[in-house]
Design goal:
By secondary structure, this protein is of the alpha/beta class. It is built from five helices and four strands. Helix 2 packs across helix 3 and helix 4 crosses helix 5.
């Protein structure tokens, strides 16, 4: 089983978790950690380490969904992902959004976190769309 951490700048992680709860109910395998204005980078490192320890309990891997690439949440998560001492293994994705978070339910039963990350990215890609008027008129005939 895969556990998930949503890591973000500011309150985004908490807001995504609350929104996911509205749609799917409780997601006990998902944890959130945020970089706040007052704690700074070292405070975030400490919070992330504690969250990762909790998420790792009984998991085959931990998938970290970050708000953006190359920010502090991403950089800290990648330190763990690229360390051979990190167990269970960690994979990191950037660009977390609500559809991505909801679709973690479709990959959490996998045992390989890197396979889960690739599949989650594949599942999420079609949810990124540009709005366009409908090109087909629906018929009233049943």
């Amino acid at each position: 089983m895969i556990s998930v951490i949503v890591a973000s700048h500011g309150p985004l992680a908490g807001a995504l978790l609350e929104s996911a709860k509205m749609v799917y109910g409780e997601l006990p395998y998902v944890h959130g950690v945020t970089l706040g204005e007052t704690a700074g980078i070292e405070g975030f490192r400490h919070d992330f380490s504690r969250t990762l320890a909790s998420a790792s309990e009984g998991a085959d891997g931990v998938l970290v969904l970050c708000d953006m690439q190359s920010g502090t949440p991403w950089n800290v998560a990648c330190e763990y992902a690229f360390s051979p001492q990190t167990m269970p293994p960690v994979a990191v994705l950037a660009g977390v959004n609500l559809p991505m978070l909801l679709q973690t339910d479709d990959v959490r039963a996998l045992q390989n976190v890197h396979t889960a990350a690739a599949l989650l990215l594949e599942l999420t890609h079609p949810t990124l769309v540009i709005a366009a008027p409908a090109s087909v008129t629906q018929s009233d005939d049943f």
